[in-house]
């Protein structure tokens, strides 16, 4: 994994989604349970696609296809805690005909809502499959165009 970018480079990220840490997100120690970062990443990817006019249910209904996660790589730097405000980014890292790699980060925000500390980063590979058979197929061209 590459070295963490600065908060300034986050400003150039393709998409940012705010997240507040709730009690249900934490473990017995009061820190975000590690698997919940994947939930935060999922929400950010979904909202990123929605911001591009790509609603996943509508896409499935109209094309018969859907995205599925096929691989994750996550690195944890520092824990988030109850009531922290975060921003989660999503940007296209690499794209192919049947899968995409999305780069994602979760940053702790300061009191003015500015990113101040990288908490978690990772890459998520999502593949396009036929919803009925779950077999890989080509990503529709309009989706690839919207992401580029």
Describe the structure in your own words.
The chain is α+β, with helices and mostly antiparallel strands and 148 residues long. It has one domain (20-147): Roll (Thiol Ester Dehydrase, Chain A). Helices cover 24% and strands 38% of the residues. Strands 1-3-4-5-2 form a five-stranded antiparallel beta sheet. The radius of gyration is 16 Å and the shape is elongated. The two termini are 23 Å apart.
Question: What secondary-structure arrangement, pairings included, does this model have?
Answer:
Blueprint: H1 7-11, E1 15-20, H2 36-51, H3 56-63, E2 65-76, E3 85-95, E4 99-109, E5 115-130, H4 141-147
Helical content, roughly?
10-25%
* Largest sheet strand order: 1-3-4-5-2
What is the typical, i.e. mean, pLDDT? 91
How many domains is the backbone divided into? 1
Q: How many alpha or pi helices? A: 4
The count of strands amounts to 5
What is the CATH superfamily?
A: Hotdog Thioesterase
CATH topology: Thiol Ester Dehydrase, Chain A
Computed CA radius of gyration, to the nearest angstrom: 16 Å
| N-to-C SSE string, H for helix and E for strand | HEHHEEEEH
Q: Give the overall shape.
A: elongated
Terminal residue distance: 23 Å
Poorly predicted parts: none
Structural class: alpha+beta
CATH architecture type: Roll
Return the CATH class: Alpha Beta
Percent of residues in beta strands: 35-45%
The biggest sheet, with number of strands, parallel, antiparallel or mixed sense and barrel status, is: 5 strands, antiparallel
């Amino acid at each position: 994994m590459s070295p963490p970018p600065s908060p300034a480079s986050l400003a150039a990220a393709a998409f940012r989604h705010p997240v507040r840490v709730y009690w249900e997100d934490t473990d017995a120690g009061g820190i975000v349970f590690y698997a919940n970062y994947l939930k935060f990443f999922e929400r950010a990817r979904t909202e990123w696609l929605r911001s591009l006019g790509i609603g996943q249910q509508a896409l499935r209904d109209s094309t018969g296809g859907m995205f599925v996660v096929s691989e994750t790589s996550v690195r944890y730097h520092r824990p988030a805690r109850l009531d922290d405000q975060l921003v989660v980014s999503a940007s296209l890292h690499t794209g192919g005909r049947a899968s995409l790699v999305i780069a994602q980060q979760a940053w702790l925000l300061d009191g003015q809502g500015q990113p101040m500390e990288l908490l978690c980063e990772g890459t998520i590979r999502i593949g396009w499959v036929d919803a009925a058979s779950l077999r890989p197929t080509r990503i529709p061209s309009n989706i690839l165009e919207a992401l580029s």
